[in-house]
Amino acid sequence: MQRVMFHSTIFGPIRSRRLGVSLGVNLSPDDGKTCTFDCLYCEAGFNAQGTGTTGLPPRQVVLDMLEHRLDEMSRAGEPLDVITFSGNGEPTIHPEFPEIIDGVIALRDRFYPDAKVSVLSNSTRLSSPRVVEALRRVDNPIMKLDSTDESVMRLIDRPVSPSFSSEGVVDLLARHLSGVAIIQTMLLRGSHDGTTVDNTSPDQIEGLIRAITRIRPRSVMIYSIDRPTPEKDLRRVERDELIEIAEHISSATGVPVSVA
Question: CA dist 239 to 40, 182, 187, Å?
Answer without folding.
Answer: 21, 20, 11
